[in-house]
Design brief:
alpha+beta, Glutaredoxin, five-stranded mixed β-sheet, 7 helices, 47% helix, 13% strand, binds FE2/S2 (inorganic) cluster
Length: 152
């Protein structure tokens, strides 16, 4: 089917790479925006690996998301410097407002909330990235506003 064909094209592009599995998974993430469960058996078969092996790698690396991201992706820093100035409260607030846990997307596909560990913006914590743009010194109200304006 169509999924299988697209997945196999990515596999073929990386087949010769050393340790082909990771480059293939990154390739899938780039092609589809996620690495879903139904891609795992296809990759396993193509590389002669077990499904469990492939699944293990997909879930070990947090780079791979299992489903399409929301239209707005919010990455909240939970590393030490940001934690010390209120990142936990911010993360909790965001989860409450959108009714999802960190790493999840709202059912309507509008917002994904994720955690990251240091965005290199430590002096201006708590920091977050919204659709790739960096923001610092956030509080709950400002985060809400930024997410709403990112949603358009
Ligand atoms: Fe949050 Fe570095 S600890 S940006």
């Amino acid at each position: 089917d169509a999924l299988e064909q697209r997945v196999r094209a990515v596999v073929d592009a990386h087949r010769g790479d050393r340790g082909a599995l990771l480059p293939i998974l990154h390739g899938l993430q780039a092609e589809f925006g996620y690495v879903s469960h139904d891609m795992v058996p296809i990759v396993a078969r193509e590389l002669n690996l077990s499904r469990a092996d492939v699944h293990g790698v997909v879930t070990f690396y947090h780079d791979f998301r299992p489903e399409p991201a929301g239209r707005t992706v919010v990455k909240i820093c939970r590393a030490e410097a940001c934690q010390s100035v209120g990142a936990e409260k911010l993360a909790e607030h965001a989860q409450q407002v959108f009714g999802v846990k960190l790493g999840q997307t709202t059912p309507d596909g509008s917002v994904t909330i994720e955690q990251v560990f240091c965005l290199g913006n430590c002096a201006l914590g708590p920091a977050a990235q919204i659709n790739g743009r960096m923001y610092g010194k956030l509080d709950e109200q400002r985060l809400d506003r930024l997410i709403r304006s990112a949603e358009g």
